[in-house]
Design brief:
The chain is an all-beta fold and 283 residues long. 0% of the residues lie in helices and 48% in strands. It contains no helices and 24 strands. Strand 17 and strand 18 form a beta hairpin.
Length: 283
């Protein structure tokens, strides 16, 4: 076992192949909101490569493997900071009133996507540090809550909204190519399975697997067909893992989700400390 010491950690991310002369993994740690620091560790040597105080809280952090950078976003201040993982310094900083209250962030090869309450999804060039576009729900003002770059094309962005809608945008034309209705509350998780199917989860305690149409021609804009829905409330199905709660404390409000696409498993975390695990293939 290896131990790395730091004051406080809110997020951890494994980073692969940052050093050009090595294939070993490194670790990126994000300190608490108060500490405002980003630290980069050499796992093999168990040593700190660098630590950067970004000057703002870090609510979101995503790795851009194509540019060897980590992009950090502060919801409070509306600041986006790009840090080089090779030299340990800040490449550039962007700040805009539209970024305040950001709800999610992700990156593609060329762009940073920022989900904002007032302006939809802002597109920021990862190299030129300028806004190149904006993705909005054409049917009205909607608040995006979750973003996912399609594995079929980094020019497609999947967006989940507060009112439960899921849309797929063509980034270049800034148009919706597919719209999926099935949830009744805020989308909080989007994942692509190894089969190419999309799985979404929401605050309505449900997860939906959508039929694989991401690789097809979508000029018609037809909606995805719902393949299967999981009710993430109660304990009728799935494997249960308890984390120190008694029966009297059980509160089956699902608050977080993740997917292991390799083993086809869906994990749901509940307020009471229970983690439920579903087999995606069998339900």
């Amino acid at each position: 076992m290896m131990v790395l010491y730091c004051e406080g950690v809110d997020k951890l991310m494994v980073v692969h192949n940052v050093k050009h002369d090595s294939s070993c993994s490194s670790l990126l740690s994000i300190g608490t909101r108060a500490s405002r620091d980003v630290a980069f560790w050499d796992v093999e040597c168990a040593c700190l490569e660098f630590s950067v105080d970004v000057g703002h809280s870090v609510d979101f952090a995503v790795i851009s493997s194509s540019s060897n950078t980590v992009v950090c976003g502060s919801s409070d201040s509306g600041v986006v900071v790009t840090i080089s993982l090779t030299c340990g310094s800040v490449d550039h900083t962007s700040k805009a009133e539209d970024y305040r209250g950001m709800t999610d962030m992700t990156v593609s090869v060329d762009d940073i996507f920022i989900a904002t309450p007032a302006s939809g999804v802002m597109i920021l060039s990862i190299t030129q540090d300028v806004v190149t576009g904006c993705l909005r729900d054409p049917d009205g003002p909607s608040v995006p809550t979750k973003l996912l770059v399609s594995s079929h094309s980094d020019r497609q962005l999947i967006v989940g909204y507060k009112h439960g809608l899921v849309q797929i945008f063509d980034v270049d034309t800034e148009t919706v190519v597919c719209s999926m209705s099935g949830h009744s509350a805020s989308i909080n998780s989007l994942h692509l399975l190894s089969s190419g199917q999309l799985i979404s989860a929401a605050d309505d305690h449900s997860a939906i697997i959508w039929n694989n149409q991401l690789s097809r021609d979508q000029e018609s804009g037809d909606e995805f067909a719902m393949s299967r829905m999981y009710e993430l409330q109660g304990l009728e199905t799935g494997v249960e893992v308890r984390c120190g709660c008694s029966e009297s404390e059980v509160n089956y409000d699902a608050i977080c989700y993740t997917v292991d696409s390799t083993q086809q498993l869906l994990y749901a975390g509940f307020s009471c400390g229970v983690v439920k695990i579903w087999n995606i293939d069998t339900g």
